[in-house]
Amino acid sequence: MSLLLLLASMVIGDDWRFELSKPSSDYYVVFFTAKWCGPCQRFKANGLESLKAAFPVSVVDIDEEPQWKKQVDRYPTFWLCRKTTRVPIARWTGAVTVEQVRKAIPQEPLEAPQAASAPAWHILPQSVVALSGPSSRWSGVVIASDRILTCAHHGETSGITADIDGRSVPCSIIKTDSRLDLCLLRISEPLPAAFGAALGKGAPAYLAGYLRGRDPQLLTVSERDGAARINGVKVLPLQCGTRPESLSGMSGGPVFDATGGVVGILRCADKTTADAATVDSIQEFLR
Fold first, then answer.
1. CATH number of the domain enclosing 250
2. How does 105-130 read in b/e, with b if 16+ C-beta sit within 10 Å?
3. Which pTM does this prediction carry?
4. Domain count along the chain
């Protein structure tokens, strides 16, 4: 599919419904610690037991397993992972609460044939970041060690930061295109390669972003009978379990195909429609 329009409706009785998915219990937390780390020992004394009571916890002493030093350089660090892999889908440093972990557990699609073939890391991948400016919050996706792709209509021209590992990392604008509604940001410090997402070629399967700029969400894209067209662009529904008032904050978030490739960037969303730039537009913009 070369054109994409994602539709989310809040109107009761409307066939195009916006529903959140059900959380899954198939997750565990990796706790990276070190014997010489004071905050690590404090967490072991004050927070580890409550975390273990709610989730399986794998404790990794970085001195005993030094191979992880390439991926973890601050302690304590916590990863939320699926039980089938040790690839983070959410990360925290310093400390973490049971509630933070629960909120970060991605939503399992109610009806998503594509999800069975999607890699585990694809559910809320760490390449998706929350962006902030002096007056707004929105979403973006890391596409290189020092590049974030997002929408342009947020209107912020300075003071932009990306929330990465619980830190606000400054960003500057490299280029914008109001016609395509796309913006490319430079991150002030390079990120590990694991943060990046590549452009994809498949059909849209997931929309990821930060609802209201703060709540990480993964929404499943799926076709249903009676798909409509608006301005010649095919309309697709989003499936999910609660019904938030709008998709505010998810603008600039990526649309992924089933393999984790970026095939769109959310440009606008309200109670009735959500429009995304296509991968063709993204390629044109990045040339």
1. 2.40.10
2. bbbbbeebebbeebeebbbbbbbbbb
3. 0.55
4. 3
